[in-house]
Specification:
190 residues; 2 domains; 76% helix; ERAP1-like C-terminal domain-containing protein; ERAP1-like_C_dom
Length: 190
């Protein structure tokens, strides 16, 4: 779907949910948000606040994590620890922002700043998932930071040490994969 078509589709859907095919919306939401402005962010946020259906609300919250303007990324991340949404619903924002290269460093900073707050809001059986999210990092410096930051904290988390070991292994594998493929990508691009 072309970026130019995504925003009008999303805006039409926000006015009348029956006007846009659900499959088209699945492609349109992230694309519109990726190139979206504050007005679109606010429209999606208001729709999420009013949405009674949990799955639709999570879809809207997920879209908020695709905005690339740092101020909007910060606002989206703030919703994870804010009072407007259940933390478990809003956690999709952090999860997605940690995956996207354009938002990863902001999300990683937020993760470290808010980790202790998040552990208070999640059930003990959900904390392993929070720890696993750092497995989306792919940088030696982040690996060191994650290990230093989480090692003392995971001891109090049910299954925490195992979740941390899996996350660290994911980061190491990503780093090795990048090293392995770096030259072939350079060769291809030249």
């Amino acid at each position: 779907m072309l970026v130019t078509q995504a925003t009008p589709l999303v805006l039409a859907w926000l006015k009348d949910r029956k006007t846009v095919d659900p499959e088209a919306l699945s492609s349109a939401l992230p694309r519109a948000a990726t190139h979206g402005n504050a007005a679109l962010f606010d429209a999606l946020l208001e729709a999420a606040k009013k949405e009674p259906n949990r799955n639709e609300r999570v879809r809207l919250l997920s879209a908020l994590s695709y905005f690339r303007v740092p101020e909007l990324t910060r606002r989206a991340l703030g919703l994870v620890v804010g009072s407007d949404f259940d933390t478990r619903d809003a956690l999709i924002i952090l999860r997605t922002a940690l995956v996207l290269p354009e938002t990863q460093s902001l999300a990683w900073g937020f993760y470290r700043e808010q980790f202790d707050t998040l552990t208070q809001r999640l059930r003990s059986d959900e904390l392993g998932g929070l720890i696993n999210q750092v497995g989306n990092l792919c940088d030696a410096a982040q690996l060191t930071e994650a290990e230093a930051f989480l090692t003392p904290r995971v001891k109090q988390v049910e299954g925490g040490p195992r979740a941390l070991a899996r996350a660290m292994e994911s980061i190491r594998l990503c780093i090795e994969s990048e090293k392995l493929h770096q030259q072939s990508v350079r060769d291809f691009l030249h």
